[in-house]
């Protein structure tokens, strides 16, 4: 589990509820008509904007925002350097037994391609094409939450207008003014809460996780091509470390020194 996502969502929700409770009565913020306008309108707008398949993929991607699944490029570099050592010592065909141990389908495909003796340019083309489609899918998934962040405040404003119209239409009946004003204000509240507590943070977390995954796959492509070219494992490691920030490189150095990773010359 991604603890930061859980803590952030719970903290934002609890503090907003505590602020509402300080007003004396939590139920004063509950209005069925406002829920129908904002929640129903936002949901309908999102469904109208995307296909059901895209919406299903976006729901699956939401799990990624809360999962602790690691896409650390440093972990990938360690694996690729060990593959480079084995390939240099025993040949590319020796990597075939490693393919079945890999969990990442992208890395598994790349290693299988070089084991099969595929032309290096074709390996690069296949993996870069797949990476482009992964980026496109990530963009669509994030777009669903970005659309929710845009629509929910908009439907809050629509609810405000509906409430004001109802209030003005009932000027002859003072008892109806309160209900109209309630809808006008609470819809704005609901729209802002949906955007700022849910849609915007989830979209931002998906963007961060997508960047991490894309970086790790770029490292995989470079590493696989270097292994296929028969480069020295030390060179492979240095090339791949260029993808990392200085702090991440120092962490990788510590791991390698501790793990006694030996690069064959």
From TrEMBL:
Keywords: Cell membrane, Cell projection, Chemotaxis, Cilium, Flagellar rotation, Flagellum, Hydrogen ion transport, Ion transport, Membrane, Transmembrane, Transmembrane helix, Transport. Its main location: membrane. Residues 246-265 are annotated as: Disordered. The keyword DNA-binding does not apply. PROSITE patterns: MOTA. Residues 101-217 form the MotA/TolQ/ExbB proton channel domain. It is a multi-pass membrane protein. GO terms for biological process: bacterial-type flagellum-dependent swarming motility; chemotaxis; proton transmembrane transport. InterPro entries: Flag_MotA_CS, MotA-like, MotA_ExbB_proton_chnl, MotA_N. GO terms for cellular component: plasma membrane. Residues 6-91 form the Motility protein A N-terminal domain. Belongs to the MotA family. This is Flagellar motor protein MotP. The chain crosses the membrane at residues 34-52, 151-171, 177-202. Residues 246-256 have a biased composition (Polar residues). It holds the Pfam family MotA_ExbB. It comes from Orenia metallireducens. It is found in: Cell membrane.
């Amino acid at each position: 589990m991604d603890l930061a996502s859980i803590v952030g969502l719970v903290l934002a929700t609890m503090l907003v509820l505590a602020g509402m409770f300080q007003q004396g009565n939590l139920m004063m913020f509950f209005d069925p008509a406002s829920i129908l306008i904002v929640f129903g309108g936002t949901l309908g707008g999102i469904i109208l904007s995307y296909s059901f398949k895209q919406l299903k993929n976006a729901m699956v991607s939401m799990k990624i925002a809360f999962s602790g699944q690691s896409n650390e490029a440093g972990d990938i570099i360690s694996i690729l350097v060990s593959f480079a050592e084995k390939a240099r010592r025993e040949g590319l065909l020796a990597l075939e037994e490693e393919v079945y141990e890999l969990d990442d389908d992208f890395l598994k495909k790349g290693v299988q391609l070089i084991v099969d003796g595929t032309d290096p340019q074709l390996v690069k083309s296949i993996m870069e094409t797949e990476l482009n489609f992964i980026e496109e899918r990530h963009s669509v998934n994030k777009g669903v939450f970005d659309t929710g962040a845009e629509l929910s405040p908009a439907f809050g404003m629509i609810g405000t207008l509906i409430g004001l119209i109802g209030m003005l239409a009932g000027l002859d009946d003072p008892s109806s003014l309160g209900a109209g004003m309630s809808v006008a204000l609470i819809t704005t509240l609901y729209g802002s809460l949906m955007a700022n507590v849910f849609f915007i943070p989830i979209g931002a977390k998906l963007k961060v996780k997508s960047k991490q995954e894309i970086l790790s796959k770029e490292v995989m492509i470079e590493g696989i091509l270097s292994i296929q070219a028969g480069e020295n494992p030390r060179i492979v490691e240095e090339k791949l470390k260029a993808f990392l920030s200085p702090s991440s490189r120092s962490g990788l150095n510590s791991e390698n020194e501790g793990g006694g990773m030996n690069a064959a010359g």
